[in-house]
Amino acid sequence: MLVGSLFIVSGLIKCNDAIGFSYKLNDYFVADVLNLEFLIPYSLWLAVIICVVEIVLGVALIFGFKSKLTTTLVLLMMLFFTWLTWYTSSCLHDQEMAAKLGEEFSKNCVTDCGCFGDALKLEPIESFYKDLILLVFAIPLFFAAFKNKIKENTPKEDGFFIAVSLMLILGFGVFVIGWWFTVIFSAILFIIVYFIKNNIANQWLSLMAAYFISLAFTWYCLEHLPIKDFRPYKIGANITEGMSVPDDAPKPVIEYTWKFKVNGEEKEFVTDGSYPTVDGEFIGVVTEEIEKGYEPPIHDFSIETDSSDMTSHFLEANKVLMVVSYNLAKAETSGMEALKNLTDKAEKMGYEVIGLTASGSDEKLAIKETYKLGFDFYLCDEKALKTVVRSNPGFLILNKGTITQKVHWNDIDDLEF
């Protein structure tokens, strides 16, 4: 019940934002991490498969379906993710040690495994411990299944298992994540699977129902936007406030280790930054961040031209329509074809219309000429734009920096001017 419930919640959070999960997979696939660059073109497909299968395995565990196959897949998945989170945390530890010793570190480290998307940020070492605990449960489940100790539930057992599972999902999905939909989705899923199981008596049909329901939800979020936005650019958020640092925000705690040669011996002196009073020859200094300071939710957003920063100007304007395309060459053709009518209408209604992209000047000029656009594209970091909206292109309406509307290009008719 515990493993199955966590699998359902984890899978559902990633199904809600499969594009974001695919970006995380790409972080691992690059050459200086796992060197699996041939998988990058398939990252979205892999993301969808992983998160949907997670939900189906969770359902299979709770109902006792195909116990040998289910527990084998669960164990393999937990072994892989336990290794991956160990690898991630070890990489970061080695990187910190190299920095402390003043040595170069050639590898690139992923700072967040993306286990729960943007809903719950865990340090890699925390993710490792979480996976280790789940692995402790997955191993005996595997052996129990192959000793034929895990049977398909009776209808009475189904009721008990479903009730306990929903309580666990309530605790984690609502009280930890803050998303009631996890309980609603799971309850509907359980009811449908229970009905098929007890009326048609076919385990594969029950699992296929869970698969297609989860896949349909994922497809909906891909064709529109995540139904729950856990990012700092959600509707109602103010970008200016998201970039600001409060006066009373915690400052980083830095430890300075100074090395001196004193009477022919190398000695170290630790301070909080002040130069030590030492009668000796200075050799070098190494800094280490003991405690992280406050980092604003938004720290890489900007609106720039080749020569000036226009961020403040547009974040102080009353009516702004922002067209976001992190890469113009990868923008959906249907979405770009809809730009002309939409942006012309917005300009007539008194909106300042701007585009944001990480593409170069040649791409910007080509897009303007191809689609006869009357607005300019400004420069912004690609990673930031991917975070702003999970659509290429995507559309935001801002009022003094506050996001009042945000839509996928499939839903541009929903924008209200």
Structural account:
The chain is α/β, with parallel strands linked by helices and 417 residues long. The protein folds into three domains: 2-223, no CATH class; 253-291, no CATH class; 298-414, Glutaredoxin. Helices cover 51% and strands 13% of the residues. It contains 14 helices and eight strands. It has helices spanning 2-16, 18-29, 43-63, 67-101, 124-146, 155-176, 181-200, 203-223, 239-243, 311-315, 333-337, 339-348, 361-371, 382-388; strands spanning 253-262, 265-271, 281-291, 320-324, 352-357, 377-379, 394-399, 402-408. It has a five-stranded mixed β-sheet with strand order 6-5-4-7-8. A three-stranded antiparallel β-sheet has the order 2-1-3, with helices on one face. A hairpin with a 2-residue loop joins strand 7 and strand 8. Helix 1 packs across helix 6 (155-176), helix 3 (43-63) runs antiparallel to helix 8 and helix 7 runs antiparallel to helix 8. The two termini are 48 Å apart.
Radius of gyration, whole Å: 26 Å
User: How many H/I helical runs?
Assistant: 14
Element-level helix/strand string: HHHHHHHHHEEEHEHHEHEHEE
Strand order of the largest sheet: 6-5-4-7-8
Instruction: Return residue spans where pLDDT drops below 50 for at least 5 consecutive residues.
Output: none
The average pLDDT value, as a whole number, equals 92
Q: How many domains, in number, for the residues?
A: 3
The number of E-state strands comes to 8
Strand content: 5-15%
- Structural class by helix and strand composition: alpha/beta
For the terminal residues, how far apart are their CA atoms?
48 Å
Relative helix content: 40-55%
Shape: flat
Largest sheet: 5 strands, mixed
